[in-house]
Amino acid sequence: MICGPAAASAGSEAPGGGAGAAVSLPDSCEEELLIRPLHSGDIYASFQFRTLWDTDFLHQGKKVSHYRLFPKSLGQVLSKFSVRELHISFTQGYWRTMQWGQPIVPSPPGAELWVWFHNTVADVDGNWKELTNVLSGIFCASLNFIDSTNTVQPSASFKPLGLGNATDHRFLRYATLPREIVCTENLTPWKKLLPCGSKAGLAVLMKSEKLFHSSFHSQAVHIRPVCKCSSTAWELRQTLNVVFDLYTSGQGKKEWSLFKMFSRTLTEACPLASSSKVYVDGELFDLSPATSVLNTAVVLGDRRTYSVYDLTQKETFGQLRSLNLVLRWKGESGDMLRPLLHAERYVAGFGLQTGEIHTLIYNNHPYRAFPVLLLDSVPWYLRLYIHTLTVTSKTRENKPSYIHYQPSKDRLRPHLLEMLVQLPPHSVTEVTVQFERALLKWTEYTPDPNHGFYVGSSVISALVPSVVAMDTNNTQERPLFSSFFPTKEESSYFVRVYTEPLLVNLPTPDFSMPYNVICLTCTVVAVGYGSFYNLLTRTFQVEEPSQPLAKRLANVIRRIRGVPLL
């Protein structure tokens, strides 16, 4: 169960009002920016915007018609399709876990969508199809290409993150589009969902040409029910994560600033936000201007101290009424906290008939073993030989304690493989399975078939042992970046890891042959039929042979003398 912070209570004070102007509002919003240095010299910026609305879309007979901060387009989607939880992300680039550590909000390359429907929905597949088409229009994306061939129904993965503990996975749908390209046309509708848009607050930093000139970019929308005091509220959390490269964005210098990263500075908080803060992991930085406000938080098993800049305070902006944080690296970055869980995947084999998928899962904990849940969705045109599935750890067979496999159907549904595997301490667990490539119909190939076909990322979910005690008190006010995944145990924290997507070549016909046939056919028609048609339509005339030169001279003389010609 996740409870909203005290700052987002229903009796919050209206922005800009005095003590006597306090009104009871059903919704509130917060915004937050986390700046964290990476040991590669790059910089990580994580935006989080949260809107809480004390209402119930799914209440029988209740129709919501008035929207204040919560986007009406999303509210109508939740109500019409009886959505209980919705999680959607658009990502460009791949998160390099071993170089950057664990991300605040994980996401796979491309587009990802997973939805929990209410248990009163009779036709889940019909609602899912209509929902993807509607979201495709809202976010200006290719989500309409999600169909039964790339949708799965997990049996153990992707538990609800919000209020309630649904166990009937018939109402869960999950799909990815690993080839989806993220650009400005996806960012613009995402920013329009914010209470202040991109006109005020932290959103003014979101300049498209700077965000997309980065090593990694991910934007997401998460909607879930949470508890708010004694009632149920809906939480809309919009996240945007960017990694700026040291050399392309920082010109090779370990000195950063807001203007250097975003080409803009902060001038005010969002007037509709009850909280607007900037957190900087300043243990490796000298900050200018400095701040005396510090906050200690435990994120992903790591306790860090952050410098806090409150944008709702006028003193934060100084006399220039502008905040341009300057971050200067103190020196050596030191040793990075090695991620305890890491995974990667690749395709082995030769030729275009068979192959083998290898998934490597690393447990870097020196003495603790823990289980992980692996989810793999493979397209139907890669026909898995499930009897060749092997799981090995330290050169020994590692038998999974739980396996769920749903075979594919050609042109109808993909393979679904879920396994619960125990990872020994300080080990590498390898999961391998062989497959055979199918031959597609010529109309099923992409416009660039020789580029290959993408296979979505594998998903590894686990409760990782924590070095420090995790905070399980979800009722107190905490930074947004430390409260995305619910924490139920002090000794562990939840982590979701995505592998690289695969690029697989399939047997591809020579698509130049139709072009050659067309050229040959046109040549034959032009030469053969053209000559025949010319012979049929041309008129012939018999011409007399030309006279000798002497006779022609004689006729000229006779014409002059007026004598008849010869």
Automatic annotation (TrEMBL):
GO terms for cellular component: GPI-anchor transamidase complex. Residues 1-13 have a biased composition (Low complexity). It comes from Pygocentrus nattereri (Red-bellied piranha). This is Phosphatidylinositol glycan anchor biosynthesis, class T. Residues 1-23 are annotated as: Disordered. One of its GO terms (biological process) is attachment of GPI anchor to protein. It comes from the Eukaryota.
